[in-house]
Amino acid sequence: MSDHPFDLIVFGATSFVGQILCDYLFERHGADGDLKWAMAGRSKTKLQSVRAALGEGASGIELITADAADENSLHEMCGQSRVIISTVGPYALYGSGLVKVCVETGTDYVDLTGEAQWILRMLLEHESQAEKSGARIIHCCGFDSVPSDLGVYHHQKVALEEFGQPATQIRMQVARMKGAASGGTVASIVNIAREMTKNPALRKILANPYALVPDGKARARQLNITTPTRDPKTGAWLGPFVMAGINTRIVHRSNALGGYDYGMDFLYDESMRMGRGLKGGLAATALTGGLGAFMAGAVLPPSRWLMEKYILPKPGEGPSREQQRDGMYDLRFYGTTASGNTSTTRVTGDRDPGYGSTAKILGEAGACLAQDIAKTDVGGGFWTPATALGDSLLARLQQHAGLTFEVCD
After folding, report:
1. 146: nearest Cα among 343, 363, 326
2. What is the edge-to-edge ordering of all strands in the sheet holding 267-275?
3. SS3 257
4. pTM over the 0.85 mark
């Protein structure tokens, strides 16, 4: 029996996604249900406002004052909970102190970062200590990278059941997606561009699909969709998917941590399906050009300043409740085994990916780690959603979070 008063604490409860997450947890578990949870942030006044907005019955939710820049307050917070969910990003700017304290205190941790360069930094600084302290650290528990990571995990289970062997190559295509841009995600991408300006060597790290694999060694040359590409099987035009840079790294890390169950030379790539014919080709070209212009502007300080000030959504800004409810995504996974057998699976979500769905995924990941995964089953270390949470999270997401994982005919 745990001596902590809480199963989990939401740190950053007053942030945009933090508020959505708290709303979800309150709807799912109430203030004093099966999951004992609390809200934490820098401002007690803002925390009180967020709690009041949850409605009747929320007054019993405990509020904890903690600051990302104050390690003493982080230690006090971690001492009260088995799991910390952090929504305080960009994590490269504000998240390192909490990971350090969680590792020191043996506290489990999940977040929704998509910052590969920061994850690598945390691995290098804290992985060995986490293994000793028992802290389970799981990054990327939002839209990036749970649908991709668990989508591949689910696809491989299907392949093993149908063919007796895993798929040696899986290609994920975003068939449909509707959702507004996330201010937090944009801020993280802009910060990565800023870091590359200061440290050119970072470009090589970010270009390596095996950057987060324990030994970092390349097993096979990975396909990377960066230009308009025509899929020879479907005839559809494909364009780059902005989250592929983190999702592919997490999938390859899952393969490595799982003892290369997918194969030593497993291939995985992600792209956006833009349609067939001339219209699809033009759309893929426009997407490629737009992403290229965005990254070029983000790298140069003058244009980056103009973009941040006048164009890009700010952290804390996001879609309305209606836009969140109207959002959705449909991801297709096309797999091929070593024997040439093929199968197709899909993952769908019923909210906008950046906020509505991410908050539900993050909440279930934190609750799953607190309630379903014993320390004796998964020990301390830096894990991925698939390797630490696996089937338990798959079940939770389908039962409660509006996701589906299914086989396509």
Report:
1. 363
2. 229-230, 237-240, 267-275, 167-178, 328-337, 342-349, 403-407
3. helix
4. yes
SS3 177: strand
Domains and CATH numbers, the chain: 6-143+356-403 (3.40.50.720), 146-352 (no CATH)
Give the model confidence (pLDDT) of 192-202 as tens digits. Answer: 777 777 777 77
Structure tokens at 314: 């700010």
Residue labelled with tokens 């906008």 = 352
Tell how far CA 180 is from the center of its chain.
17
- Per residue in 367-388, pLDDT tens? 999 999 999 999 999 999 999 9
Q: What Cα–Cα distance (Å) separates residue 203 from each residue in 64, 117, 192, 198?
A: 39, 10, 10, 11
Query: What is the rounded distance in angstroms from the CA atom of residue 165 to the CA atom of residue 218?
Result: 22
Each residue of 233-292: pLDDT tens digit?
888 999 999 899 999 999 999 999 999 999 999 999 999 999 999 999 999 999 899 877
Cβ contacts of 173 within 8 Å, gap of 6 or more: 231, 236, 238, 270, 271, 272, 273, 331, 332, 334
